[in-house]
Design goal:
The complex is a heterodimer of chains A (118) and B (114).
Chain A (H helix, E strand, L loop, with lengths): L3 E4 L2 E4 L5 E7 L6 E7 L5 E8 L5 E2 L8 E7 L2 E6 L8 E8 L10 E2 L3 E5 L1
Parallel strand pairs in A: 2-11
Antiparallel strand pairs in A: 1-3, 3-8, 4-5, 4-9, 5-6, 7-8, 9-10, 9-11
Chain B lengths: L2 E3 L4 E5 L4 E3 L2 E3 L5 E7 L5 E7 L5 E3 L5 E5 L4 E6 L8 E8 L8 E2 L3 E6 L1
Parallel strand pairs in B: 2-12
Antiparallel strand pairs in B: 1-4, 3-9, 5-6, 5-10, 7-8, 8-9, 10-11, 10-12
The chains are: A mainly beta (118), B mainly beta (114).
Chain lengths: 118, 114
């Protein structure tokens, strides 16, 4: 149980285009979803937290107009990288949890999406 | 500032040897603690977690970890390493300063030698 999927697993795009990444909780309803970015051989950096039906909360330094997050349902959150540039190339990972804002709540991670912007 | 420290960015062990990956946190209030494993180009898989209760926690794939409040530690161990254990391991905490967000350690890459 508690499976999270991401699509696509890998995407290559030209500079200036927008890319949408989907994160789905397959067998549970995820009240809260998180988006992380991971640079090579580094840890995960939290970008934003989204709760179903409300606006995402972005971490300091993350441009909300560049990284648009939508959490339209209890099983789907999307991250859109707008006007992508080479510096946006990275590994993006989402996670989902059952309970909104519950301390100690486990996050279940998706397999990640590797974005390469040419 | 609250933080999570994983000593040793790279650890090598022989197949069959003890695995010990270290994790220390800085917080006056015991947080919730997690260990995740990441295989190349994949997401994170939960190995085990500590919330309350018994301080020795058993997880998947033969791993276990012990929460030691006095040492602010949550080290991960496995009695006998297997080649398939080679991966990146992340310690994470939540509940610090009342937040449910994870704070991740920098990760430890485990290499298992034949």
């Amino acid at each position: 149980g508690a499976v999270v999927s991401q699509h696509p697993s890998r995407v290559i795009c030209k500079s200036g285009t927008s890319v949408k990444i989907e994160c789905r909780s397959l067998d549970f309803q995820a009240t809260t979803m998180f988006w992380y970015r991971q640079f090579p051989k580094q840890s995960l950096m939290l970008m934003a937290t989204s709760n179903e039906g409300s606006k995402a909360t972005y971490e300091q330094g993350v441009e909300k107009d560049k990284f648009l997050i939508n959490h339209a349902s209890l099983t789907l959150s999307t991250l859109t990288v707008t006007s992508a540039h080479p510096e946006d190339s990275s590994f993006y990972i989402c996670s989902a949890s059952f309970l909104a804002g519950a301390q100690g709540e486990t996050q279940y991670f998706g397999p990640g999406t590797r974005l390469l912007v040419l | 500032a609250q933080s999570v420290t994983q000593l040793g960015s790279h650890v090598s062990v022989s197949e069959g040897a003890l695995v010990l990956l270290r994790c220390n946190y800085s917080s006056s209030v015991p947080p919730y603690l997690f260990w995740y494993v990441q295989y190349p180009n994949q997401g994170l898989q939960l190995l085990l977690k500590y919330t309350t209760g018994a301080t020795l926690v058993k997880g998947i794939n033969g791993f276990e970890a012990e929460f030691k409040k006095s040492e602010t530690s949550f080290h991960l161990t496995k009695p006998s390493a297997h080649m398939s254990d080679a991966a990146e391991y992340f310690c994470a905490v939540s509940g610090i300063s009342g937040t449910y967000k994870y704070i991740f350690g920098t990760g430890t890459r485990l290499k298992v030698l034949a």
